[in-house]
Design a protein that fits this description.
Length: 215
């Protein structure tokens, strides 16, 4: 299974949309930059002098392989941070999947924000490690089930999840073909595990069955 959903946390003044009148010395709120669907947030090799918080929408992190194929390593949804790097450059590309609002937080960060961000960075690392286990050891059915359970958790554990990403995005994330992803969604629907209200939404009707598949 993937790591749990993004945490709701108190937001330092630099991230809040309203500046507190009692703290005249606090940093001004950071602006939200709007990215249209499929637009680049940063490129592989660009300076890693900031981290980023998704205000709304979805971000994909990916790298292009030597043969031209794309490998997506992560999706980030509202409330999650991304752009963590151990050195001074980005090792992946970041793009908006859909219309997405992002706040850029310059490094080094103010101390109260750094205390909040550190555990989230560690959770992102855990999620990345678990994703490697999913694509390395599980069959297609298990991978797609794990993906749906993960997205459900990260969107509040409600039965209906919104998928901003396409089937091609999901395939590149899970190391599968688009056809395999589509067939697996159809199989889950036929088995009564899910309903598909539209191309970008999944209603999970049998959470237990999906959990058993990816346990």
């Amino acid at each position: 299974m993937f790591a749990e959903a993004a945490l709701e946390m108190p937001r330092p003044a630099a991230l809040r949309g309203d500046a507190s009148p009692k703290r005249s010395t606090s940093a001004p709120p950071l602006p939200t930059t709007i990215f249209s669907a499929n637009s680049e947030i940063y490129a592989q090799g660009s300076p890693a002098d900031s981290i980023y918080r998704v205000e709304y929408g979805t971000v994909r992190i990916y790298r292009l392989l030597t043969d031209g194929r794309r490998q997506i390593s992560a999706f980030h949804v509202a409330g999650e941070f991304f752009g963590f790097e151990a050195d001074s450059t980005h090792h992946f590309f970041a793009e908006a999947v859909s219309r997405t609002g992002v706040r850029e937080i310059p490094r080094p960060m103010e101390s109260d924000l750094a205390r909040i961000v550190l555990p989230l960075a560690l959770k992102a690392l855990v999620r990345a490690q678990e994703h490697l286990l999913v694509i390395g050891r599980q069959c297609a059915t298990e991978r797609v089930a794990a993906f749906l359970i993960d997205m459900m958790a990260r969107q509040g554990n409600g039965p209906q999840i919104e998928l901003a990403m396409t089937r091609a995005d999901i395939a590149d994330y899970l190391g599968l073909t688009v056809e395999t992803v589509s067939r697996t969604f159809s199989r889950f629907k036929e088995c009564g595990h899910i309903r598909l209200p539209n191309a970008r939404a999944v209603y999970i009707t049998n959470v237990g069955a999906l959990r058993e598949l990816c346990a």
